Amino acid sequence: MIILTLLAIPALFSRSPFIKYWRKPEWNGFIYFPFIWSGFHQAKVKFFLLIAVIVNILIFTPFVVLNGWSFIREIWFLAIVFSTVNALLEELIWRGALLSRFSEQFGEKWAVVITSLGFGLQHYSLGFPWLVCIAFSIGGMFYGGITIKSKSIIPSVVWHIVLNILMVLSGFILK
Questions:
Q1: How far apart are CA 144 and CA 108, in angstroms?
Q2: What is the rounded distance in angstroms from the CA atom of residue 162 to the CA atom of residue 94?
Q3: Crossing angle, helix 99-106 and helix 108-125, to 10 degrees?
Q4: Geometric angle at alpha carbon 53, from 27 and 170, rounded to 5°
Q5: Rounded CA gap, 129 and 136, in Å?
Q6: Phi-psi group of 70: left, alpha or beta (phi > 0 → left; psi -120 to 50 → alpha; rest → beta)
Q7: pTM for the whole thing?
Q8: How far apart are CA 23 and CA 12, in angstroms?
């Protein structure tokens, strides 16, 4: 966190908007798979987001089902509130403010790498195991990529909310 703080100091003297990605998404922009800027497959942002959400649902559904209907009934409201607040705040910080500033200083690709590593390390400081934090950093790369390619944090907020809800309902967090 100290390194990210030091990297962010020049942002205090910037004249550009604090969060340049706080706007309507360009849903028809293209994102590439597997490396965001290049890859063997390209998709419009709206289709990439839809596919990502469906894949996350398919991955987490068995774990949600194992917890049973009574667990879901007890925790559904908390899952929605926690997931929405957490995703919105994390995306405003990591893909909003920090990605905006770092992309000015280091370019979009390095900004995505830096913020993704910081995103993973933040979760390590919250007590998540290293392997999970590496997965969060990889996820952060895709959140950053979809933010850059859509020119908006809204797709990453939507994806993050869905993923958080699935993680809560599966018992991965808050259990």
A1: 9
A2: 17
A3: 140
A4: 155
A5: 11
A6: alpha
A7: 0.89
A8: 21
Residue reference for tokens 């809800």: 165
Q: How far apart are CA 61 and CA 46, in angstroms?
A: 22
Is the peptide bond between 155 and the residue preceding it cis, with omega within 30 degrees of 0? no
23: left (phi over 0), alpha (psi -120 to 50) or beta: beta
- Asked whether the predicted pLDDT for residue 19 surpasses 70, the reply is yes
Other CB atoms within 10 A of residue 107 CB: 11
135 three-class SS:
helix
Mark residue 30 as left, alpha or beta (left: phi above 0; alpha: psi -120 to 50; beta: remaining). Answer: beta
For residue 171 the two structure tokens come to 């018992």
Handedness of CA 130, 138, 104, 16 (dihedral sign): negative
Residue-level pLDDT at 12: 56
Q: How far is CA 15 from CA 11, 60, 111, 116, in A?
A: 9, 43, 18, 24
Nearest Cα to 91, choosing from 136, 20, 143? 143
pLDDT tens column, 66-86: 999 999 999 999 999 999 999
